[in-house]
Structure formats: C-alpha cells, structure tokens
Amino acid sequence: MELLNKIEKVVLGWVKDVPHLPVATQKWISQNVWWIALVFAAIGGLGVLYSLNNLFLLIASLESVSRAYVITTTFVEFAIVKQIISIVLSIMIVVALALAINPLKLQQKKGWVLLFLALLLEVILVVVGALLSLSIFGFIVSVIFGTIFLGALAYFLFEIHSQFDQRKKRS
To answer: Which of 27, 63, 130, 131 has its CA 20 to 30 A from that of 147?
Structure first.
C-alpha cells in the first residue's frame, strides 16, 4: 500500500500541469465511476473466460502436434505460458475493479486506490504482452495502442482524484 501511495504522489506531480476537466465534469465522473468499473469488470470477466477457453484449446493442440515438429511444439508451449500470465494478470485486474465498486459508490478513497491498482496491473499486462509478442510489429502496435489507452484511463482517473481525496468516508 505504501508503494501505491508513492507512485500516486509521483504521478500527481506529473499531471498537475495538464489541462483539467471542468469541476462539474470531474464530479459527474466521480459519482458515476462505480458503474463504469462494474462494466469494465464484467467485460474483463468475460475476457478471462474467453482466455481460459483459448488456453484449453492451446493445451489440446499441444497434444495433437506431433513431437517430431519440435519448433511448433515450442511455440505452442510458449503461447501457453504467455496465456497463463495474461489470465493471471487479467483476473487480478477484474478482482481489483470488482472490489472497487462499493467504495466508489460511497465515494471513498479506497475505491479510487483500487482503480489505480487496476491501472498499474493493466500497465504490467501491456508491457508483458508487448515483450512476449515475439514480433517487432506486434511489440510496436502493443506499445502504441497500450500507451494511448492507458494514458486516457490515467488522465480520467487522476482528474477525479481530488473528488475522492477531499471526501470523508461515509458509512
């Protein structure tokens, strides 16, 4: 938790000079971010199920690939490892989003921190996915689109930071 606070303070220093949304917009987002987190958690949960299906298909194809083709077997095994890493990180993101929903409804700082944790886990997922893409084109595309997507998420997340920072916990 201490590490999250340190990272939060560093990022707050980076974003203090960026153009800010109007206060009314920040307030609207902060009041409605709980259902946005719910939607992202549901979509992420479906993505995890789809990834599990793909993992089982990869495992099944590993058994059907002839052991004479060592190169093919090696790529399938690598794909299985990559898929497992992706599933584990995705489950962690979905859990963080799901745990954030109730505190976000109550406008508690804990909800914002859980969203921030989900964002950091998403950064790790994008970086690991790019590094394990095994292609320069895949790496570049992952980094470019991952940076744009995560930058937009981080912008909106830090725009509502003050809405959660100044509120008292409600019971």
So the answer is: 27
CA distance 42 to 24: 28
Handedness of CA 152, 154, 155, 159 (dihedral sign): positive
Whole-model pTM: value is: 0.85
Distances in Å between the Cα of 29 and the Cα atoms of 82, 150, 164 are 35, 17, 11
Q: For 94-135, how does the pLDDT look when each residue is reduced to its tens digit (9 = 90+)? A: 999 999 999 999 999 999 999 999 999 999 999 999 998 888
What total number of domains does the chain contain?
1
Virtual torsion, Cα 72, 145, 160, 128, nearest 10 deg: 30
Catalogue the E-assigned strands of the chain. none
Residue 112 lies in a domain: yes
Structure tokens at 140: 């570049």
Write the CA distances from 126 to 9, 54, 143, 150, 153, integer angstroms: 22, 19, 7, 9, 13
Q: With left for phi above 0 and alpha for psi between -120 and 50, is residue 19 left, alpha or beta?
A: beta
4 within a domain of the structure (yes/no)? no
In a domain? residue 131 = yes
